[in-house]
Amino acid sequence: MNTTVGAARGALQIISLTKRYTTGGHTVDALDGVSLSVPEGTFTAVMGPSGSGKSTLLHCAVGLDRPDSGSITVDGTVLDGLGERGLTEFRRARVGFVFQSYNLVGALTAAQNTVLPARLAGRRTTREEALDALDGVGLRDRADHRPHQLSGGEQQRVAIARAVLNRPALICADEPTGALDLTRGRQVLDHLRAAVDLHGRTVLVVTHDPSVAARADRVVFMADGQVVDGIGGDGSGRLDAGEIAVRMAGLEET
Ligand SMILES: Nc1ncnc2c1ncn2[C@@H]1O[C@H](COP(=O)(O)OP(=O)(O)OP(=O)(O)O)[C@@H](O)[C@H]1O
Predict the structure, then answer these.
(1) Where does the ABC transporter domain lie (predicted)?
(2) Centroid of ligand 1 to alpha carbon of 12 (angstroms)
(3) Measured from the CB, is residue 48 less than 6 Å from ligand 1?
(4) 81, 83, 88, 122: most buried, per Cβ within 10 A?
(5) Distance between CA atoms of residues 92 and 160, nearest Å
(6) How far is Cα 197 from Cα 137, in angstroms, rounded to an integer?
């Protein structure tokens, strides 16, 4: 089944993506014909049972992994034919990461980490720019701290400042609040929301948490490597965490 959710044009367009893993004679269709369009300036959450293909989808969308077939376009850049070097340049210039496994460089200060992707992409940056970005996540006074001197939540906020400063076409987050307490998790979501509402960024978040998904404009549900359901995205206002939890429970039962 191919399911297309959302508008025809967008910051991210995924068409008929497939990805199969074969390990020790065992085959898994991690992505089984996923089509998804994420409009610019929106916040989309991806939910689904464990093993449904969420991380694989996110990794393919940002060029960290390659699908077996299908097409991915991010803000006009078609990833399909890009070589390793092209993909690396694409990631540096066009995507902001808030991933647990793609975190801050330990030897650099918060300010240096914040401007790192922009510098790697060849853009000149100033300390003032870094301080402004850190100010946006309430961490201006921590600019000269190194990651080990920051809490987990503060590190996530530096990752968000970094993601926003680089002006990427797409900000992707994998369980951005997973390791955080309620208050810090809420702050991280406030900052991601502000990146969309104040800076017009496009955000894609994978989460298991209905209250996190409820902060999105739209929730896309996956099961068995396919997009099987969606909620929101029609501009009708706040999503309801209870409704999201009910849909998730339905997927986990099947
Ligand atoms: N490198 C790999 N080798 C073999 N199988 C893999 C690999 N990566 C993922 N898979 C399999 O592909 C399927 C989808 O995995 P994926 O990590 O995308 O799911 P997920 O929805 O993100 O799960 P979770 O919520 O548990 O993180 C799973 O069955 C998983 O075991």
Answers:
(1) 12-249
(2) 22
(3) yes
(4) 88
(5) 15
(6) 14
Selection from 210, 212, 209, 167 nearest residue 186 by Cα = 212
**Cα→Cα distances 124→115, 116, 121, 160, 216, Å:** 9, 10, 9, 19, 33
Q: In angstroms, rounded to a whole number, what is the distance separating the alpha carbons of residues 184 and 113? A: 20
Report yes or no: 20 and 28 within 8 Å, Cβ to Cβ: yes
Q: Residue 10's pLDDT is what?
A: 60
**Calpha distance 50→208 (Å, rounded):** 9
User: Mean pLDDT per segment of 10 residues, for the chain of length 254 residues?
Assistant: 40 96 92 95 95 94 93 94 90 83 86 91 90 89 95 86 85 82 81 88 93 94 95 83 93 80
